[in-house]
Amino acid sequence: MFLDLTEEQKLIQETARNFARSELEPLAAKLDREGDRPAFLANLKKLAELGFMGLNVQGEYGGSEAGVVAFSVAMTEIARACASTAVTVSVNNMVCEVIQTIGSQEQKEKYIPLICSGAYAAGSFALTETGAGSDPAGMTTTAVLDGDSWVLNGSKIFITSAPYAGVFVVWAVTDREAPKGKGISCFLVEQGTPGLVIGKQEEKTGQHASATNELVFDNCRIPKDALMGKLNDGFRIAVAELGGGRIGIGSLALGVGLAAMDYATRYSTERVQFGQKISSFQAIQWKIADSYTELEAARLLLMSAAFRKESGRPFAKEASMAKLFATEAANRACYNAVQMLGGYGYTADFPVERYARDVRITSIYEGTSEIQRVIIAREILKNFS
Amino acid sequence: MKALLIGEYRQGKLLDTTYELKAFADRLGADSVMLLVGSDAELPKCDSKVYLADAAKYGEYNPDLHKQLVLQAVEKENPDCIVFVHSSYGWDLAPRVAVALKAGQVSEIVALNEGAYEVNACNAKLRRTVTPKSGRCVLTIQAGAFSPTGEPQGAPQLERLDLSGTASAIEFVGYEAAEQKGVDLSKAEIIVSAGRGVGKKDNVPVIAALASALGGELGASRPVVDAGWVDHSHQVGTTGQTVSPKLYVACGISGAIQHLAGMKKADFIVAINKDKDAPIGEIADVLVVADVMQFVPAFTAKCAR
Amino acid sequence: MKILVCIKQVPDMESRFRPNGDKTWYDESDLAFRMNEYDEYAVEQAVQLKEQLGGEPEITVLSIGPERTVEAIKKALAMGGDRAVHIRDDRYYQKDPWQIASMIASYAKGESFDLIFTGMQSQDRGSAQVGVIVAELLGLSCATTLVGFSYDGGTVTVKRELEGGIKGVAKLKLPALVTCQLGLNTPRYPTLPNIMKAKKKEIAALTPAELSGEAELTATAAIYPPAKKGGGLVLEGEIGAQVDRLMGILKEKTAVLR
């Protein structure tokens, strides 16, 4: 058993940490409060140039071939500084991976390098609909073959990076007669395609710099070869790829939780009440002990899931366990951090209120905690039936 | 014990740090002689022997030639130690002399400890006691660690040094003046900050005057910036800049935690505040309990003198 | 052109340090290590020079230290070094600058490097000696504390940082050794593909015994935390007396007021 990172993984972690500290951290509060999209996109471009958009992607498509463990530690470091940047990086990696897994040779050669190099600021993953959240198979967006093209109609919501994504991976129903989940296919839709309308941007609680929009397909016509993977096989793919995305989001949550606890713990060694540093009070010590213990457990679950995926073993259950535990632990850590700062923790003068807002969504998107439990239980019960 | 002290001379002037060498030798209890590559116009004030080599001939920066001059002085004096200031001149030249003599070098001594030398390690988070194992040793002392007591005086007994040739692998081209920069408090060595205690905008120049008298920058706490008394670029604290100067003077700053987070890494903190119980007192090395507008002008006048 | 860059792996300076068992160095067991900051400037400058010369120079990276040092070496290779030499020495911290420099010089002697870059000092020991000693042992021209570097036809023009922000400009002929200071350049982040590719670059391992048997010229007698800051002093009373006392304290306790 070897529980240490390799030298390469450590160096990737160091590059991510140094970049996050010097480029992302100083901007994070401003991005959260006022926004500065050019600066946000400029940092994404730099991260792309460093190789962070295709960590688990082959070199021939411009990827880094660094693996899933490296992806996880990089996500954590980036999220320590800026969760909005981290979620964009996570989604970009997922988009690259899904194209690499099921795309045709032409699709891989065309789109993956554009995302990995930063020529595209982002790729987008368009699955969720108003009536299809935790139950994505219930989607109603349709794609109908008309001569040499597919015509898409319907709408998607909560689409990360929609205004500046270069390409969207879109799921749509291609066989309305098929049993639920069996008639869905996957398409690549380029930004700017006529009939693809970027709808309103959500006003979210946190992760403000990362745009989240509605997407409307109004007779959106795409070439026939924009179909990715097998016809009517799209849902299985979506489910499989979400597993990888869950490692990303769990790692992101871990980063935010660590940032919050690091800040609050340092604060507790400076803040004096009743004539003592508040860190000398057991009430504070227990928060520190509990949160760091949970975050360390989250880290180990994430490493284990990432290692399984990297080794080519089944990892859906482990990814769900890691995502469930890491995001819930990070939420508790951020809650504790605010509590440790008291009234100051509720003001914008200190970063912990931002951490608390940024972390909240992590137990919702990429599969809610409730859905993770469904998946975990289903996977376990398989072995008992 | 005999020490050969290597004086410093730049841009036609004897540098004041030269006198710290003498203070160090005195602290060591050593007899001292000095070598200076300088000029007759800028001789150190002391009563000991000074070997003088002409900077016009041997350059202000020419470590190859200066090394040979030091070795010549070593030959004549047979000192137990050769002492430099740990400066751009000293750390550049000292190891060259050490190699030529195969002498051990102790760098950037900050204190003496029963015959051994104390130096910092790991950003001054640790201290190390170092003992030379060679008979003769080369030492460099931290600038400011050994301050001279009293004004230097006396007239040195001069002895001139010369080399037979001036061939060197290094050609000194010249000096470039320091750049004038905008306010970057993070690199400032001295910061004098104004807080709400200064009372009104018209009083800010009084604090700025102290900053300039000390050769430092003006800082400010958030209330002062929010009130528009001082530009935001001067703000210290969580929403301003995080600073770590050698000296931080907080004028009329009570010490809100947002401010403390931005300046607590300062090496030495002076707070001037009417309120003896102000939180700033908990991290200040010195708390002057006084009205800022009375104390600061008096202190500025003293500094200017 | 053959370039050598000497690097050291040091602890993250934000760490807490405590003395080791025999009180001669710090306890390494719970520290995270990284490349010495000044050495990053050295690596960056070497890589920039290689780029300036169309990729012709070969950059060798050298480091002395235990097994963990390989991580710093790999970083230098990922930044653009071509090959590396690792002098594997678990007792490196017991060697003084003279012994360390002697090992480097002994290796470099046979390699006839045209230009050697080092950091101006290590962040942990901070002696600022090793580079200069190597230059003296090899008979190279040498300048320290560079904040500016340019190369043209066998001559290096350096800008040295002097006190008070003044800079000194000097020219050196190759072969030369320069030591690098903060402000010289902005070290690049190694890209992820380059980190992965560095895996394939050669890291030759040497042992101290193969290089130099020099005895130490200085020894660490003890290492310990500095005396803690005492509680703050409170000055009350008449303004004139307060001014005088504060002035006295600042002169005594700080290096900035003299």
Automatic annotation (TrEMBL), chain A:
Homotetramer. PROSITE patterns: ACYL_COA_DH_1, ACYL_COA_DH_2. This is Acyl-CoA dehydrogenase family protein. The keyword Oxidoreductase applies. Residues 232-381 form the Acyl-CoA dehydrogenase/oxidase C-terminal domain. It comes from the Bacteria. InterPro entries: Acyl-CoA_DH_CS (IPR006089), Acyl-CoA_Oxase/DH_mid-dom (IPR006091), Acyl-CoA_Oxase/DH_mid-dom_sf (IPR046373), AcylCo_DH-like_C (IPR036250), AcylCo_DH/oxidase_C (IPR009075), AcylCoA_DH/ox_N (IPR013786), AcylCoA_DH/ox_N_sf (IPR037069), AcylCoA_DH/oxidase_NM_dom_sf (IPR009100). Keywords: FAD, Flavoprotein, Oxidoreductase. It holds the Pfam family Acyl-CoA_dh_M. Residues 124-220 form the Acyl-CoA oxidase/dehydrogenase middle domain. Belongs to the acyl-CoA dehydrogenase family. Residues 6-118 form the Acyl-CoA dehydrogenase/oxidase N-terminal domain. Its cofactor is FAD.
From TrEMBL, chain B:
The keyword Cell cycle does not apply. It holds the Pfam family ETF. PROSITE patterns: ETF_ALPHA. The keyword Transmembrane helix does not apply. Keywords: Electron transport, FAD, Flavoprotein, Transport. Residues 3-176 form the Electron transfer flavoprotein alpha/beta-subunit N-terminal domain. Gene3D superfamilies: HUPs, TPP-binding domain. It comes from the Bacteria. InterPro entries: DHS-like_NAD/FAD-binding_dom, ETF_a/b_N, ETF_a/FixB, ETF_asu_C, ETF_asu_C_CS, Rossmann-like_a/b/a_fold. Belongs to the ETF alpha-subunit/FixB family. PANTHER family: ELECTRON TRANSFER FLAVOPROTEIN ALPHA, ELECTRON TRANSFER FLAVOPROTEIN SUBUNIT ALPHA, MITOCHONDRIAL. This is Electron transfer flavoprotein subunit alpha/FixB family protein. It comes from Geomonas propionica.
UniProtKB/TrEMBL annotation, chain C:
InterPro entries: ETF_a/b_N (IPR014730), ETF_b (IPR012255), ETF_beta_N (IPR033948), Rossmann-like_a/b/a_fold (IPR014729). Transmembrane segments: none annotated. This is Electron transfer flavoprotein subunit beta. The lineage of its organism: Bacteria, Pseudomonadati, Thermodesulfobacteriota, Desulfuromonadia, Geobacterales. Belongs to the ETF beta-subunit/FixA family. Residues 23-215 form the Electron transfer flavoprotein alpha/beta-subunit N-terminal domain. It holds the Pfam family ETF. It comes from Geomonas propionica. Gene3D superfamilies: HUPs. It comes from the Bacteria. Keywords: Electron transport, Transport.
